Amino acid sequence: xxxxxxILIGCGLGLFAGLVPGLGYFMTLLLAFPLLxxxxxxxxxxxYSAVVTVSIYVGSVPATIYGIPGDTASMPVVYESRNLKDLxxxxxxxxxxxxxxxxxxxxxxxxxxxxxxxxxxxxxxxSTLLVLLLLVLASVIIIWxxxxxxxxxxxxxxxxxxLGMIGYNGSLDMSIFVINDYMYQGLPREVVLATLxxxxxxxxxxxxxxxxxxxxxKESYSVWSVYFVNPxxxxxxxxxxxxxxxxxxxxxxxxxxxxxxxxxxxTKDPVKRIVASETGNNAGAFSCIxxxxxxxxxxxxxxxxxxxxxxxxxxxSSEAELGPLMRNLVANFMIINLVGLALAWPLSNYxxxxxxxxxxxxxxxxxxxxxxxxxxxxxxxxxxxxxLSVILVLAPIGIALRNYYMLPLIFAYLISDKAIGSLVxxxxxxx
Length: 431
Prior knowledge:
By secondary structure, the protein is mainly α. The chain has 20 helices and 2 strands. The protein has helices spanning 4-19, 24-31, 33-36, 41-65, 75-80, 87-114, 116-122, 128-145, 150-165, 189-205, 231-244, 252-266, 270-287, 290-295, 301-312, 322-344, 351-354, 359-380, 384-400, 407-430; strands at residues 167-169, 174-176. Helix 4 (41-65) runs parallel beside helix 16 (322-344) and helix 8 (128-145) packs across helix 9.
């Protein structure tokens, strides 16, 4: 039941995602593209939950010490890190965030385990119409919150949807934008993701973070100065994180921000605010997977990529046995949280050595690894020339768009087939 190989891979990727600013879950999965293609559905879920959970645990450490957002949802910690008055508060913030996150993650996982029978029956009450509405809701929220002008995000979304339509579409029984035999299979997903998401992100961040501009004044904190979390507060923010983690397009970001904003009404203590934020953050890390398992609906770009891998291994939400799947996932999730707790608390004292590197070299290395992964896929599919041609076309576009947040385009690209399929079924049922 416990898959230590998947846990090790996921925790390693999560550690890297939490330390490298701007990397994110999506790009982290791209790094392991060749490995993920051969994994079972449960292994993919274990790796993904480990990436999300461990990156949240680890991301709170650089956010507290250096003001570097390890993951997107750690922005409240980045803000409050300026208000930590002394090394004791720094120590308490790190230990409190670790323990609060552990409480939030484990309590939500146990709750889902107890509710397995109900979760398994709920999916039969949902129709194709609701599936389509959830996709629309997720799309609207991503466009609205992407950080670009709304018109730009909408155009990027449309462009991504059109890219996703290229190839033979089984739902429509027709070929779309096909000009050669290779294109019947559609554009290579790994190339699109690498050139239109990973590349522009890496180019943007290449000179954004420089280690010589980071303060070292907080590096001498003690990991053994423990902050004991309030169980009532932790239970509340765990419940809040569970609910808000289900929000399409927002997930742990909304969990973190909502918990932080509520605690800010009641106290000015930066440690308590950080602990509340990270408790909600970690609680949302597990609940955000539920819509994917129950309805087959990805509510974030990284989940859309995860769903693609799962479907390559035969996963369908209507046929999946949720009970055994959830029990297996929760058992592995407990181990993942123990690893995350260790990395975010006693082992956090070693984070300072990573940030003495020039992060520009780290980003350059990430790009090299992603390119090698893409070329591996091209080699295994005997499509080297086709992959290189698509790279030459899309890479300049990705670089030109580096100052825009590309998630609307990528999300639309990944869900386009599911959305078209739902529209076709809806037309057959009601029109």
